[in-house]
Amino acid sequence: MKSPRWLVPALLLVSMFTFAQSAPEYHQVNKFVLGGNGPGWDYLLYDTQGNRLFIARGMHVVVVDASTGKQIGEMPANGVHGTALVQDNNRGFFTNGRAGTVTVFDLKTLKPTGEIKVGENPDAIIYDPFSKHIIVMNGRSHNMMAIDPESLKVVGDVPLGGKLEFAAADAGHVYVNVEDLSQIAVVDSKTWKNTATWKLEGCEEPSGLAIDTAAHRLFAVCGNSKMVVVDSENGKIVATVDTGRGTDAAAFDPGLKLAFASNGEGTLSVVQTTGDNYKLLENVPTMRSARTMALDPKSHRIYLVGAELNPPPAGQRWPQEKPDTFTVLVYAPK
Known about the structure:
By secondary structure, this protein is mainly beta. It folds into two domains: about 25-40 and about 200-334, YVTN repeat-like/Quinoprotein amine dehydrogenase (Methylamine Dehydrogenase, Chain H, 7 Propeller), CATH 2.130.10; about 40-170, Methylamine Dehydrogenase, Chain H (7 Propeller), CATH 2.130.10.10. It has one helix at about 5-20; strands at about 25-35, 45, 50-65, 70-85, 90-95, 100-105, 110-115, 120-130, 135-140, 145-150, 155-160, 165-170, 175-180, 185-190, 195-200, 210, 215-220, 225-230, 235-240, 245-255, 260-265, 265-275, 275-285, 290-295, 300-305, 310, 320, 325-334. A six-stranded antiparallel sheet has the order 2-3-4-5-6-7, with no helix packed on it. A four-stranded antiparallel sheet has the order 1-28-25-24, with no helix packed on it. Strands 8-9-10-11 form a four-stranded antiparallel sheet, with no helix packed on it. Residues about 1-20 have low confidence and may be disordered.
């Protein structure tokens, strides 16, 4: 039996109120001061099997126990940007932006075991669990590469025409943010061919990218404080949501149906993704400079890294981190 027409708006209001009441609020639950001196940092990755954080820290990768904040390992690098893990064969991979290589390491011993030559300035790196390949985004040579984690050979080399940032994957596709062109490039993960390019209207310099594979939605975060939601089947922009300033990384929690943007201004944007209703729920205060993050999808915890900053030296563009202030912040829903 259909509800009376007068009752439908009331039911909608009740439903909206119930969601607002039940939507989790994020708050800081831990803080680990790692200390040390840069230069700088980039992506961090949560290890779901080992409960570890892999943090790209300039000239080395720092490995930290995610529960205690204790450093449990360190690997030398050459301008590292990101890390990817392949649990099935006990291998990890990280990009060396200065050397144009990817380092292979043993997940148990944290010892490097080899180097793979890739493109110029390899930046973001992910493991695509659908194609079972490591995906590398080369910023300066403007190409994406696919590496077979068993043979350690480059099996795909896809020119994408611009500066590449983060990527996300589903069954059959890899989606790559092209920062300087404000685009998402679509790559077929069977043929390793670029099959489509989608313009991100209203999005300047897209960096972080996350995906809801069940709902076929991509979440691209942009330098002009926006999150653009894109239909991964046709490239249509479904919604645009305001975020904090200085946005860099994106994440999606399939259990809570929330999307996140970590912002260098010192906030974490939490976005509702129920159905096709996208709304900023809160900008949680974090730490100025905490622009990259990792998500534990089981505990729903968010890990961010940042440091206190000094003004940039004369003639330089970027501020300098204060020694011994490098910190991991942990946030969880109430």
